Amino acid sequence: MHLIAAALVCAFLGPAPLHAPRRVPLVTCVTRADEHGNFVLRPPGDARPRALVHFLGGAFVGAAPHLTYATLLQTLADAGYIVVATPYELRFDHLALCDDVVERAQPTLLRLQAEHAESAVGDAAPHAGLPIVGVGHSCGALLLLLLSSFF
């Protein structure tokens, strides 16, 4: 899992438009969690997604990323990414919190990765799925950093 800063996200999405920013109504974002508690947004259309984005929000709004970060998550989905937003409740035992995030996010990330795996042979098969990119804000970025150092 790779961590990227907000500046790199902007680099992937291209320069900001000169017109007023588009307002994303909350009804266009996912309002129901999957069986593991993650919120999944898919890119529009039938194009192959560019990557999976695992998103963790900030400390006090991390429990509802699909609402508090709706515009960002929808923008990432519109840019061709599958977004998996994992809610969490803030605790100061960060290692236990990382365990909870992995327990909730990993089945969804692996399922989505397998859905989009290319046909591959030999040793390349386990790595044929979409890359996973971690994007976080505040405490979410800290948790993603800790998670990337575990693996």
Q: Which properties best describe this structure?
A:
single chain; alpha/beta; 5-stranded mixed sheet
Protein topology:
Blueprint: E1 2-3, H1 6-13, E2 39-41, E3 51-56, H2 65-68, H3 70-78, E4 81-85, H4 94-115, E5 132-136, H5 139-150
Parallel strand pairs: 1-5, 3-4, 3-5
Antiparallel strand pairs: 2-4
Provide a quick synopsis of the model:
The chain is of the alpha/beta class. It has helices at 6-13, 65-68, 70-78, 94-115, 139-150, and strands spanning 2-3, 39-41, 51-56, 81-85, 132-136.
Structure report:
- The longest helix has 22 residues, at 94-115.
- It contains five helices and five strands, in the order βαββααβαβα.
- Helix content is 36%, strand content 14%.
- With 151 residues, it is α/β, with parallel strands linked by helices.
- It has helices at 6-13, 65-68, 70-78, 94-115, 139-150; strands at residues 2-3, 39-41, 51-56, 81-85, 132-136.
What is the end-to-end distance?
Answer: 8 Å
Order of helices and strands: EHEEHHEHEH
Rg measurement, Å:
15 Å
Give the averaged pLDDT, no decimals.
79
Number of strands: 5
Largest sheet: 5 strands, mixed
